[in-house]
């Protein structure tokens, strides 16, 4: 018997979830979708209803029985409620128990392996669970796959990103700090390191972003890329701009490290950081940037982008693409898996239908670590 809902979105009132809903509406995929949030703001509730989504206020995580009832009536659950090191396995386990397909935008490295260990249970339940289907991870993994599909095996993948301080929401701050807890390939986690123990790189991003200082951070791609693609090593370096925001962010992350303080200082530290952000509200915006090098000894391919846009669309739109591909049956693999298994050709095909356009992503050859001849991304998909 057909289930009542095609999909249920948990945490639908968040900024990145709202961007996903807008993308789904552009693609005409709103019918029989239920959007729930524990505390809707009037403006986001009105916007979601205007797009054609059914709205409900509910704390889906407060009552496991209520969550089971919800998932038993839907084909797909989209988990947009972080932090994923708290919600990821909790909702995934209930999705498996109710034979409901699953998607999230998890960017927490420490929960990646625990979620992947549910693969056999998800396979047995006959469901598809796509984790980390946002911008990074998400689009990054798919671009890397497109590159190695063209190049063949590569020794290294280096991912570099920077985010404008103005885009740091409460949830984004908590995730950024969590990334300072480095995660080993086997899943072991570490305390936030002291300043002298951090590993830095200075990276040139396309305009308008320019040169930015980054630090090695925990992210899912260094765990999943070598597991699912013919790549030996992957690294992730990220940061906030301007540089003083990176320094301030590390300082408070170090003071409030949840591994050491058991979360006792986190809320107060987040409030202090957001106060710092708001005090700089009139400062010039730098924007966000991404560089991905796929190479062996510095020779390979480079993706690069720079934008004055925010994180919401860049994360929410890929999630919409992943949801559409799951519902269309174009992702038919069963189990739990990261975005590396998504066909780049299918991804970009749906992306054209739901994107706002633009983005400014470029592709070039990489020779001795330097960008060379420009290429067309569509040539990778031929």
UniProtKB/TrEMBL annotation:
It comes from the Bacteria. Residues 8-129 form the Saccharopine dehydrogenase NADP binding domain. Coiled coil: none annotated. PANTHER family: CARBOXYNORSPERMIDINE SYNTHASE. This is Saccharopine dehydrogenase.
């Amino acid at each position: 018997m057909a289930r009542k809902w095609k999909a249920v979105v948990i945490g639908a009132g968040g900024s990145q979830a709202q961007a996903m809903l807008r993308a789904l509406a552009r693609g005409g995929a709103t019918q029989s979708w239920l959007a729930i949030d524990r505390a809707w703001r009037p403006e986001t509730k009105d916007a979601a209803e205007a797009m054609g989504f059914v709205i409900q206020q509910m704390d889906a995580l407060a009552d496991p029985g209520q969550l089971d009832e919800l998932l038993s009536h839907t084909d797909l659950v989209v988990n947009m409620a972080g932090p994923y090191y708290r919600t990821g396995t909790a909702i995934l386990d209930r999705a498996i128990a109710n034979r409901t397909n699953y998607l999230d935008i998890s960017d927490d490295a420490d929960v990646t392996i625990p979620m992947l260990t549910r693969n056999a249970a998800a396979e047995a339940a006959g469901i598809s669970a796509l984790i980390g289907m946002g911008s990074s991870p998400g689009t990054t993994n798919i671009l890397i796959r497109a590159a190695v599909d063209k190049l063949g095996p590569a020794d290294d993948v280096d991912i570099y990103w920077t985010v404008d301080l103005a885009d740091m929401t409460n949830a984004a701050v908590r995730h950024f700090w969590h990334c300072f807890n480095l995660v080993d390939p086997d899943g072991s986690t570490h305390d936030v390191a002291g300043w002298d123990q951090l590993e830095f790189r200075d990276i040139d991003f396309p305009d308008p972003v320019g040169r930015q200082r980054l630090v090695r951070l925990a992210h899912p791609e260094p765990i999943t890329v070598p597991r699912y693609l013919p790549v030996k090593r992957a690294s992730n370096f990220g940061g906030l701009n301007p540089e003083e925001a990176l320094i301030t962010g590390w300082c408070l992350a170090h003071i409030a490290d949840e591994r050491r303080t058991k979360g006792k200082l986190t809320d107060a530290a987040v409030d202090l950081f957001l106060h710092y952000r708001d005090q700089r509200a009139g400062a010039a915006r730098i924007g966000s940037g991404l560089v991905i090098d796929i190479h062996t000894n510095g020779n390979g391919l480079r993706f690069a982008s720079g934008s004055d846009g925010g994180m919401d669309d860049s994360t929410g739109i890929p999630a919409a693409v992943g949801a559409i591909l799951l519902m269309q049956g174009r992702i038919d693999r069963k189990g739990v898996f990261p975005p590396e298994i998504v066909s780049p050709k299918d991804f970009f095909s749906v992306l054209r239908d739901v994107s706002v356009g633009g983005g400014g992503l470029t592709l070039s050859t990489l020779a001795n670590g330097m960008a060379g001849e420009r290429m067309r991304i569509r040539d990778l998909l031929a």
